[in-house]
């Protein structure tokens, strides 16, 4: 550890989002070894600690006491104590008051160590069936119309997959608003992830809305929304001779002929059937 970093360490300890088995061996060791665990809800965290026979002292740190309690916890770090910060579920610091404690600890020169593990946002994205290469996370949607409209105006034009959390009481209203503003896009609504009643509903927004109208939504939701499809641009190549030449060039690069035809069709906006016919006529034979 560098000389200018103080001794107390703040560990950001990811805990299960549902299934109590979804915790790392390192996280269990840290929870046993630290001097104090700062928990969003001590009653909730105590169930996890009891399950794994962990007896480390607990203290509360949540949205309503984060200012005064944050200063106190930093004071404990200053006394050389190691503290594990946990949220009710998942990775602390994501859509919870943990980010404020991290900012304060970093500002005061304490070491902050991540103990990675589950996060509902990532869990929902990877099982959504939607693109995962790039996604935008909005956290919990605000309740006021003005604030929600501001976020929705961004989501309508967002080309990345969008992810956000929503309560069961508001999820149908939210899905309906998205349908009206963004159109009938592909989406996934995931609830009770990793729990006994886990459910993931995939499809068009309209079909997801219909599903939960017939089956009242329960549990906390993570919504994954398809991004706005970018306008396609095509190569200005339309003559049969040019398209046949493009197919031949790809075949010379060891492309399979059918794959080459598909690629040329995608680049030119011409149907695969039409490109196929061009190649057949040029070669004078069937593929």
Description:
The protein has 287 residues and is α/β, with parallel strands linked by helices. The protein has three domains: 8-118, Cobalt-precorrin-4 Transmethylase, domain 1, CATH 3.40.1010.10; 121-225, Methyltransferase, Cobalt-precorrin-4 Transmethylase, Domain 2 (2-Layer Sandwich), CATH 3.30.950; 240-283. It has helices at 25-33, 42-51, 66-78, 98-107, 120-127, 145-157, 171-182, 205-214, 240-252, 257-268, 272-283, and strands at 6-13, 36-39, 58-60, 83-86, 110-115, 135-140, 161-166, 186-191, 199-204, 221-225. Strands 3-2-4-1-5 form a five-stranded parallel β-sheet, sandwiched between helices.
In short, what is this structure?
The chain has 287 residues and is α/β, with parallel strands linked by helices. Helices cover 43% and strands 19% of the residues.
The amount of beta strand, in percent, is 15-25%
What is the average per-residue confidence, as pLDDT, rounded to a whole number?
A: 91
User: Any idea how many domains?
Assistant: 3
Helix content: 40-55%
CATH topology of the largest domain: Cobalt-precorrin-4 Transmethylase, domain 1
- Low-confidence blocks of residues: none
CATH architecture heading of the largest domain: 3-Layer(aba) Sandwich
């Amino acid at each position: 550890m560098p000389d200018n970093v103080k001794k107390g360490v703040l560990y950001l300890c990811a805990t299960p989002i549902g299934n109590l088995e979804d915790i790392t061996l390192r996280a269990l060791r840290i929870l046993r070894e630290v001097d104090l665990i700062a928990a969003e809800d001590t009653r909730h965290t105590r169930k996890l600690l009891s399950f794994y026979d962990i007896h480390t002292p607990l203290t509360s740190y949540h949205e309503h006491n984060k200012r005064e309690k944050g200063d106190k916890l930093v004071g404990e770090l200053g006394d050389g104590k190691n503290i594990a910060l946990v949220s009710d579920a998942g990775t602390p610091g994501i859509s919870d008051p943990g980010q404020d404690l991290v900012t304060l600890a970093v500002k005061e020169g304490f070491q902050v160590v991540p103990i990675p593990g589950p996060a509902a946002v990532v869990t929902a994205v990877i099982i959504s069936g939607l693109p995962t290469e790039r996604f935008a996370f909005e956290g919990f949607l605000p309740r006021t119309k003005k604030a929600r409209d501001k976020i929705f105006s961004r989501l309508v034009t967002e080309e990345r997959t969008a992810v956000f959390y929503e309560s069961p009481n508001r999820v149908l209203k939210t899905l309906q608003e998205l349908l009206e503003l963004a159109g009938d896009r592909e989406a996934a609504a995931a609830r009770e992830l990793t729990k006994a009643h886990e459910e993931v509903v995939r499809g068009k927004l309209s079909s997801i809305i219909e599903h939960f109208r017939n089956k009242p939504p329960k549990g906390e939701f993570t919504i994954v929304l398809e991004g706005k499809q970018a306008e396609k641009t095509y190569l200005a190549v339309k003559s049969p001779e040019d398209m046949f030449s493009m197919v031949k060039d790809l075949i010379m690069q060891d492309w399979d002929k059918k794959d080459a035809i598909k690629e040329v069709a995608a680049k030119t906006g011409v149907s695969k059937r039409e490109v196929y016919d061009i190649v057949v006529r040029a070669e004078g034979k069937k593929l």
